[in-house]
Amino acid sequence: MNPSQKIELLAPGGDVEAIKAAIVAGANAVYCGLDNFNARNRATNLSFDDLTGVLRLAHQHGCEVFLTINVVILEPEIPALFKLLNRLVNTSIDGIIVQDLGVFNLVKKYFPSLNIHASTQLTTVNEGQIPFLARIGASRLNLSRELNLDEIKTLTAIAHQHGLLSEVFVHGALCIAFSGQCYSSSVSVGKSGNRGSCSQACRDEYEPTAEGNSFPLNLKDNSAYFDLPELVDAGVDSLKIEGRIKGAHYVYTVVDSWRKNINGFETGRLQNDDSNLHKVFNRDFTNSFLKGNLTKDMFIDNPRDNSVNYAVKTQKAVSIQHIDEVKKELYADKNALGATLEDKIKDLSIEKRKLLISISGELNNPLSLKVLIDDGESLSVQSNSDLNEAGKVGLEHSEFEKRFKNLGADVVVEKFNFSQLGDNLHIPFKEITQIKNKIVFLLNDSKELIAPVDVPKLANHPKINAQPTLSILVSEEKDFHLCDITDADVYFKLPESFKKDSPKYINLLKNNPKLIPWFPAVLIGKDYLEAVKILEQVQPKRIVSNNTGIAYIAYEMGIEWIAGPFLNTTNSYALRTLKEELSCAGAFISNEINQRQIKNIKRPENFKLLYSIYHPILMMTSRQCFFQQTVGCKKPSIEDGCMLKCKKTTTITNVKGVSFAIDKQRGGYPSIYNHEQFLNTDAVNDLSGLFDEFFIDLTDIGAGSKEALDKVQLIQYFENLLKGEKDSQTQLDKMVVESTHAQYIQGL
């Protein structure tokens, strides 16, 4: 361990009691959310008054506080966001956790005193994403949970080179999907994980699979408890515990265990007992992502609490009597931990500081205000000029009470004392205002209040294309002939994994110059480096990138790039981040938002807007293998060649009888798709005045067992749709039998 290296233990705080628990257990920092703009709507969350009290309490104990604003933002929400940011800059908040690219733009421009932490929802997995995040204003980044120790070490070193801190989840629930790339809840029940409303479809019950699993997507919980030395060696700055929907008892137990482990490591006595972690909610534990050993053992066919099962198993209890004894002992231990916590936090308070204001003064002397604070602190302020004799009416007590009622979010005036203020006195009101401002300044730790910023007005620039054009996506050579039967732009979907040093895709793109490279959302390690080689050797005029790392390289190389649909762009300010910081030429607007939410978006100058009107509906993508738990696989763990070679497809069916296709592109990650295609002909009628380009996905990925459609005919119908031919919509509805555009109706 580097002597200068500090290990931050970062704890969840879903409510005030959990935050208190984290503080007394030894957290260096806590992250929490307010009632809106945060990705854990199911947590109790805080009011703004709670937050100001939490800040004071935490800072008294040397604990930092980070606020989650880690959701995508809709255009109509920008004024409310500005109102929040205007309040936050005048608190002592230590950082904000952000997902939406538009928030980066706004904070960097208008609220530069706020530190921005890049959320795990940004799916940070490769080295190109780090300078991207540094450029748009991040000060730290949360690396994706799917990465292994070698990948974490590499990315942390690069982050440090760019002046960024790294953060890694070390304990708590694991999503089967890449964070930020899961749309299952949004598609199924209209509750988006990108808006804090995940319904946890990965914990749902399904009809038993061929392997006999009823919860085939349910991962064990993450625990890197015994990997602390390797994480420190990797240079990680912050060890983050998941759990903002968990209670104070859980937070205290987990943070206390980790604090003891860190303290033991720093003194050369690493802990070898994680038994307390098994006494609070868990689904059993795995560290397989961290170890890069993706086995079937990562799954557990039960999404509920495993603490009782673990206790029974470790005690080797078989008889009913013995099992009952083990349960009683476990509950007794839980109660003891709870009692310890209750005792430790009983005197912690986030109540507002109570003020007694004494106002005194006499003729030809300054007006004096003395503020007594309930914690024993006091401060005094005087007017610059003396009091003089009033005319008809002197200083009214009610005027003081009105003017000094609001002195800050963390204080409340309980009483005014006017006993030392003479009668029939006068002083200009501007002097009273100056006194108030001095008191506010002193109560705000002698920092000047930052004046509020108004929401900037954005111009809506004209379209580039007078009439919207069509673009299509293909992924196989058998579809290259489509380039010859249409004037549409043809994008070629590159895989997520490449054979090292293979010229296959370089030659393919060079030999087919009409194809526009389409880069996927997730590119890790050597696959990212191989994708960069494609850019360098093909030197395409234009690309579409769903990955910010590839986007950054394209920007550096001067290659025109379009932000793909999986960057999930939902507001005008995100477009400006892409345009102003990275010379982006255009962007797909998110398919998660509805017509009303789309139409308010304002385009930057010389910037294309694109929208997908036909595609398979991706629900989730995983680094784990969906086939291990469904149709089965002889391999005990995922190997390097699995992505390149595996051709399996299957379906899973939930208990409501709805089936979902599990499919993958050759060289792609296993993914789950909705049983219906997204088909939105309404958007062409509603939004042709907004979009330059409408897009259709003609790959066969995600089709499941559906019959292949005539792609030439599909293109013709869509071209006719854009021309305004009346029959085309009916023809498409007949051809695409199972379709939906529910997201376009319901939105976020």
Explain the overall architecture.
This protein is an alpha/beta fold and 748 residues long. The protein has 3 domains: 294 residues, Alpha-Beta Barrel (TIM Barrel), CATH 3.20.20.70; 89 residues, no CATH class; 278 residues, TIM Barrel. It is 32% helix and 20% strand. An 8-stranded parallel barrel has the order 1-2-3-4-5-6-7-9, surrounded by 6 helices. The chain has an 8-stranded parallel β-barrel with strand order 17-18-19-20-21-22-23-27. Helix 5 packs across helix 17, helix 9 packs across helix 12 and helix 15 runs parallel beside helix 16. It is globular and about 95 Å long.
Q: Give me the CATH architecture of the largest domain, please.
A: Alpha-Beta Barrel
Annotation, overall tally of beta strands:
28
* Helical content class: 25-40%
Radius of gyration computed on alpha carbons = 29 Å
Overall number of domains: 3
How many helices does DSSP assign?
24
CATH topology of the largest domain: TIM Barrel
Largest sheet: 8 strands, parallel, barrel
Low-confidence parts: none
What structural class do helix, strand and pairing data support? alpha/beta
What spatial order of strands do you see in the largest sheet? 1-2-3-4-5-6-7-9
* Strand-residue proportion: 15-25%
Instruction: Say which CATH homologous superfamily of the largest domain is assigned.
Output: Aldolase class I
Q: What would the principal axes of the Cα set say about the shape?
A: globular
CATH class of the largest domain: Alpha Beta
The residue-averaged pLDDT reads 93
Distance between the termini: 45 Å
